[in-house]
Amino acid sequence: xxxxxxxxxxxxxxxxxxxxxxxxxxxxxxxxxxxxxxxxxxxxxxxxxxxxxxxxxxxxxxxxxxxxxxxxxxxxxxxxxxxxxxxxxxxxxxxxxxxxxxxxxxxxxxxxxxxxxxxxxxxxxxxxxxxxxxxxxxxxxxxxxxxxxxxxxxxxxxxxxxxxxxxxxxxxxxxxxxxxxxxxxxxxxxxxxxxxxxxxxxxxxxxxxxxxxxxxxxxxxxxxxxxxxxxxxxxxxxxxxxxxxxxxxxxxxxxxxxxxxxxxxxxxxxxxxxxxxxxxxxxxxxxxxxxxxxxxxxxxxxxxxxxxxxxxxxxxxxxxxxx
DNA sequence: AAATTGTCCAACCGCACTGCA
DNA sequence: ATGCAGTGCGGTTGGACAATT
Length: 323
What we know:
single chain, mainly alpha, DNA-binding, DNA binding, Myb_TF_plants
């Protein structure tokens, strides 16, 4: 089966999007909502294929996207979710609603993969877990060992998610929750809010084009702007270089955003971080089956009542990830 | 200063999945 | 049951920029 890709059509433009195109696309989505991408080129006159339009919206123009460096918490989450889910970037991204699957995938490929490899080489089999990983990598691991390792990884990841959902480790999630609550609660008209955010994205883009800044400067600028788009003023979740070097922003979030209860938190979290959250962002259709990632994991987690700080205590040395 | 190498990330490609006629 | 159309997803690429020689 199959059909020729839409991008094969003659006359379709490829390559980087211009601010003009972005504005046209955002205006269209503002008016008609996301979806029916097939109609976008014909309605807007954009010489882009529908797929390109969807991608541009999903990965760049969509409101609520956080750009800039990943926080330690995000990094840990990605590592653990990758261990649990594999390269299911969309599924992983559903737990980090501010990040696109593309972003996470890029981050994994450019940073984490290398980092983890380095660490594995670094410990060069001294550590018990390193031994296992290296032997697994060289295919000399027995099936039993492999299964135990796999089970351990799954348990580890389950624990991570459980802790992530727990009251004690609410920091990262309170941040996400706050953002999504804003979207969900309808404190502002959902479309108006969302697309206003998009307009800001465009404004940012135009600004950077105007200035013709070097790319690095531009992205720094983007981070700042996006942070202000996504969060209350004065709470920049994007780690600057200083933040990377140890300043924990989660505390400031904790002080700013209280939690009602574990139940309400988790249910909110479920809504906010499951693919449905993406729907709120205007990215996807609501699909009952898409509840799967978090619901299944939640069920898994609820089966086990063992609890321990995982995310906060996670270290690469102790938790090598196979890939 | 110029050339080379490395890094990052937006965008593309192609397959898979789903819904519909 | 079948084929088509639309969309989602993961892998890959290419260009811009940064760092190094």
